Automatic annotation (TrEMBL):
Ligand for members of the frizzled family of seven transmembrane receptors. The keyword Cell division does not apply. One of its GO terms (molecular function) is cytokine activity. This is Protein Wnt. It is found in: Secreted, Extracellular space, Extracellular matrix. The gene is Wnt11. Belongs to the Wnt family. The keyword Transferase does not apply. PROSITE patterns: WNT1 (PS00246). GO terms for biological process: canonical Wnt signaling pathway; cell fate commitment; neuron differentiation.
Length: 354
């Protein structure tokens, strides 16, 4: 075999091994589903973009769930973009679903976050849909077994977390359980990170209460268990993204496991996000590595954080421009009970990266 051909094949094989094929999050393409699609017949499942065979089968047997899952796909994109709006990697490539760039195709810490958020979002959306009565197959979550305390009583309608976790994991994990879904290392990584997302979702379940009593005395509080908003769950996952652990697929006994690359004397923690491939710095546009670059991104001149002009622009400098902002002003309260405001226009200086 010629050296050049051998080099090409070796590189091609390495690319295959490093690529997760992103089967597990292609379903986010459901966000593009037309609102006009009724989804009331099983043949409609074939019209949905981004689903693997096993997910199409789940669609056929759970048609009533699909509008909720489509909503979850939209929430993943919106929440990911918002959560990373102050970072060099701003999750913009998620909108390319199902045709991702390498920032999400490879086993990077960015793909770790998206898998975790996607798993949390689909279970979160289903659990909330049970509460609002949008799903015929479920209702409110169970009343907790413990006593809530003096002056408190269980009532209301709890988010049905158990149902959300069961149905959400069936759908989101189905692609990673296919035989042809990338390397074993990537499947293990994606399944691990998806479970981390669900663990953070479980931890977000908290007691919420409503006051009752004479003249608003709040002598009795009716309480239920409800989930935090998805944006708060995403912020917890962002913290885990920033401290994610790089792992390798290494033999231990008769099987191979994912273990921390630098400190492989311990197993991977169930609560930490993990990744296989290092990410670029995302400073310059380079589609070969999945980087959009930060040119023309807005930055904050007075910030010391990740959105600062120094960090966002990677030391290249920035250009100022003037922007007109319309705001509510001169607001007055009228008895009883409304507020009127005028609209005022002011000019502010903003900055974009060179």
């Amino acid at each position: 075999m010629k050296p050049s051909l051998r080099f090409f094949l070796a590189g091609f094989l390495l690319l295959i091994l490093q690529t997760g094929l992103c089967y597990g999050i292609k379903w986010i393409a459901l966000s593009k589903t037309s609102l006009a699609l009724a989804l009331n017949q099983t043949q409609h499942c074939k019209q949905l973009e981004g689903l693997v065979v096993s997910q199409v089968q789940l669609c056929r047997s759970n048609l009533e769930l699909m509008q909720t899952i489509i909503q979850a796909a939209r929430e993943v994109i919106k929440t990911c973009r918002k959560t990373f709006s102050d970072m060099r990697w701003n999750c913009s490539s998620i909108e390319l679903a199902p045709n991702y760039l390498l920032d999400l195709e490879r086993g990077t810490r960015e793909s770790a976050f998206v898998y975790a958020l996607s798993a949390a979002a689909i279970s979160h959306t289903i659990a909330r849909a049970c509460t609002t009565g949008d799903l015929p197959g479920c209702s409110c979550g169970p009343i907790p077994g413990e006593t809530p305390g003096p002056g408190y009583r269980w009532g209301g309608c709890a988010d049905n977390l158990n149902y959300g976790l069961i149905m959400g994991s069936k759908f989101s994990d189905a692609p990673m359980k296919m035989k042809k879904s990338g390397s074993q290392a990537n499947k293990l990584m994606h399944l691990h990170n998806s479970e981390v997302g669900r663990q953070v979702l479980k931890a977000s379940l908290e007691m919420k209460c409503k006051c009752h009593g004479v003249s608003g005395s709040c002598s009795i509080k009716t309480c239920w268990k409800g989930l935090q908003e998805l944006r708060d769950i995403a912020l917890d996952l962002k913290t885990k993204y920033l401290s994610a652990t790089k792992v390798v697929h290494r033999p231990m006994g008769t099987r191979k496991y994912l273990v921390p690359k630098d400190i492989d004397i311990r197993p991977v923690k169930e609560t930490e996000l993990i990744y296989l491939q290092s990410s670029p710095d995302f400073c310059m546009k380079n589609e070969k590595v999945g980087s959009h670059g930060t040119q023309d991104r807005q930055c904050n001149k007075t910030s010391n954080g990740s959105d600062s002009c120094d960090l966002m622009c990677c030391g290249r400098g920035y250009n100022p421009y003037m922007d007109k902002v319309v705001e509510r002003c001169h607001c007055k309260y009228h008895w009883c009970c409304y507020v009127t405001c005028k609209k005022c226009e002011r000019t502010v200086e903003r900055y974009v990266c060179k």
